[in-house]
Amino acid sequence: MLAAAKNYFSEFKVLRTVTKEFWLTNAIIFFDSLAYFSMMNVLTLYLTSNCGFSDVESGAWTGIFSLYITAFIFAVGSICDSIGVKRSFYIGIVMLIGSRLGLGIAPVFLKGDILQYTVKGMIILLALGSAFMTPVTTTSLRRFTTKENRSTGFNVYYLIMNVAAIFAGFAVTDGFRNSLGDLKGNLGILDFGFLMSVCCFVCVYFINEHKVADEDERMPHGDDKSRRPIQIFMEVWKESAFRKLVLFLALTIGVRLVFTHQFLVMPKYYTRMLTADFDLGLANSINPFIIVVGLIVLIPIINKYNTFKLIVVGMTISALSLLFMAVPINWILAIPGIHNLDQAYLFVIYAQIIVFAFGELLFSPRFTEYISVVAPKDKVASYMALSALPMFIAKPVNGFISGMLISSYSYDGIRAKVDTGNIAYEQSPEYMWMIYFLLAALSPLAVLGMKNILNSAREAKKAEEKLATVQA
Amino acid sequence: MKKYLPILKDGFTLLVVSTLFVTVVNQLFKGLKKNTQSDSLVTAILQENSDSAKEILTDATRASRTDENGRTPLMWAAYVNIADAKQLADADAKRAAFVPLLLKSGAAIDAQDRDGWTPLMWAAWSGIPQTTQELLAQNANLNQSDRQGYTALMIAVQRGHLPIVKLLLEKGADKAAADRLGRRAADFAQQGLQKYPRKAESYQGIASLLGAS
Predict the structure, then answer these.
(1) Is B148 within 8 Å of A421 when comparing Cβ atoms?
(2) Range with the poorest average pLDDT among A150-164, A205-219, B148-162
(3) pLDDT tens digits, B35-57
(4) Which value does ipTM take for this structure?
(5) B47 with A183: CB under 8 angstroms?
(6) CA atoms within 13 A on the CB side of B83
(7) Number of structural domains in chain B
(8) Please, which residues 72-131 of chain B have a Cβ atom closer than 8 Å to chain A?
């Protein structure tokens, strides 16, 4: 394990030659991820407690936020090739500064419908700003790295983002909520996000976008027209390999949505089944922590196994993680060492987080690999971009479903009724998790059932490549 | 400008498609649930904003409006779920102020929710003595029981809230009342001792008040 860690970090030596622009981009990623993840940890709570949204509305608007991010990423994906990295960063960050500040102070000055409409507007602006950041940061990293150090550069990017997610949880989220209380703490977290966006703005100021590491990267790849998302979609949709890929991605939504529960369902579930001042940031830090450790230590070992098997095994583990929260809580109370409901809920929460993270570590990186395997060589980027389509549809639907389920099975005050035996299993939060478990369990089962169809896409592509090699 | 036009066009198309999609989904889900709106009075109470609450309470019907679980605003005022003692005490002081306000506006002091819980039971569960005292001062029914036969005293004992138990007993709460399974307050004190060793001091105090030590 130590050797794996040593090996992982020794790769970073190639970054000695990178320019300050590379590190400034990573600083932007760190600041923005701190703001983004800490906000996501409390977004549903903020919408309900600070702005007066019902559970259904807050779930819906969190889902809508994710939907708009995905939609806008499609739209602005190629924008930095047209207007440049620095200008794109400025546009995205100014929107983030405005929206984060707006969300942080609106509940102090506004109330009622005016507050709710302002917050909805700010969420859309925030989604647009967040959508700008994703393609711009990747383009920026590509431009400020050479062919030799690019893959390590992207590893650093992924690492920094996860490290920021860890700190966003236990340090930022819990720090503000524990010191200011849950209501003021939520506002403090959003104001902190505003400050982080200002830090991003300062970093962008110091970027010299003409210092491109590799001359090949100075000009955009291909003409703008060929990169337009709607046009790409219309072309790619005709291909059977793409339709099979969409089918595969749609089948796996049940499991992949579990990750979104971390921000949609869990904050309310934690604070209602335990206490409003529960350290939800710490709980949400565990997942990125396991991912970081796994990236360093486990990935080289895991890589030896077959991709398809890893996807199925990983998804099965992730789906099974929900069972901890889905079984009647009295069963958990029967476990030796667990004496009361507080301990039982803590146990199921942490067990789910840890087991899910291990499953995710196995299957999540394989998705990108699988897409690149089934996509024709010249269309990998298009397939990758459009692979977000099933999630695009699923995210807002999940937002609405989660809001409905929470308001029925994990409403504020339900813990009092659980304590006094007023809640039967079919009215309990465990029942809600059973519904989510069944949805998630469908994914590995469906993928196994469709194994032959899905594998035929890979085989067809292999044969095509073989033929092309022979002809060459 | 010409080169940005396709991007803007795509952006606008995707925005329209997304918004249409969300609107359709929203309508579908709204049809599935009766009440998807929150109550602004409850929000004001949870935010401990008495000015806003006073403004809303100018509408005489608001104090007795219930949510889908049958909870009234007074029950919401009596409910807090915080572990930190300082934050809990702060919340208690602020929530207690809502009790006379809501009662003056027509809230029923012994209203029961879907499970038969009264505002006093919520305050007993939450462990907020000032709010409990306000409710008791307005003659809240001490011995009302819920669907399971729990009284406010049993709930406070089960949670290990010694100050609340003292207040209830001082006002004459019935120690001998039993729930549907025949358990009395003293039995809950014994259970608490086993289940929550960290709160042993509170449970021992409660047990001695109930004469069960």
Answers:
(1) yes
(2) A205-219
(3) 667 889 999 999 999 999 999 99
(4) 0.92
(5) yes
(6) 13
(7) 2
(8) 79-84, 87, 90, 115, 117, 122, 125
